[in-house]
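User: Study the shape:
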Amino acid sequence: MIIRKSTDIAPSEITDQALYLKRRSLMKAGLITAAGFSASLSSLPVISANPKLPNVAKTAWGQDESLTPYEDVTTYNNFYEFGVEKSDPSENAGTLKTSPWSVAIDGAVEKPGTYSLEDLLKLHALEERIYRMRCVEGWSMVIPWVGFPLADLIKRFQPTAQAKYVVFETLLDPKQMPGQERSVLEWPYREALRMDEAMHPLTILAVGLYGEVLPNQNGAPLRLVVPWKYGFKSIKSIVKISFQENMPPTTWNLLAPKEYGFYANVNPEVDHPRWSQGRERRLGEILKRKTLPFNGYAEQVASLYEGMDLRNFF
């Protein structure tokens, strides 16, 4: 693989965020912030955008990137729990109630239990990180996520020596997620990372984007973001985090193991069986661009896979 530095993107690509903040009407969401307060969907008025998240620290990540239009980020999604078409999540995700919300922690940890989202967030300062995100289907985005390092959360539960993998699970509730009434996937949705991937500084848990509370269709109220992997690894609406010794089965790997590997690292040299992964189209742009190894984050993460055959461990 040819490894390029993340600084290869030209500063001339920068676009003012204000140009992209075209608000959508009739959006409602549960507000959950690092300050430890929340509001239910039913208590929020109909407003033109999701509530702003307070006290979000800016970071250097992605400041030389052109942001994907807000409208594209929030209306063009894969979230099969609300339908298989790209527009389905934004049209159907209003049924999801994000407050109250809790996350179960179990497996090889010293401090298992079920924690409210407020308890999980209250010790974590929120920060904005602008990350490139690449879908296995060939489209990509640049999103200003708001969240905190997953590693900080993991340390609180004190994983044991047997914890080699971190497993995530999405809410299972067909009444709130009507797409689960169809057997297009094995529900609930499950994803996993190796422990060193989970602990890497680039890996975050997101609760917002564009400085606002995470919209339902983008994985509210808590989702994983792993920018050097294809988008399906960044599981949404997390209700369970488990720690275990053996590599676990994951949703897409179970469905089509020849198409979706466990690692799912962005590797333009390994094509999907039905299309090339060598180029991508960033939403909001017309022309395609060359796909970079590890989605352009090789400088930070390539060492995690030293000695591995990335054609076999795809």
Notes: Residues 6-305 form a domain with the Sulfite Oxidase; Chain A, domain 2 fold (CATH 3.90.420.10). The CA atoms of residues 30 and 98 lie 5 Å apart.
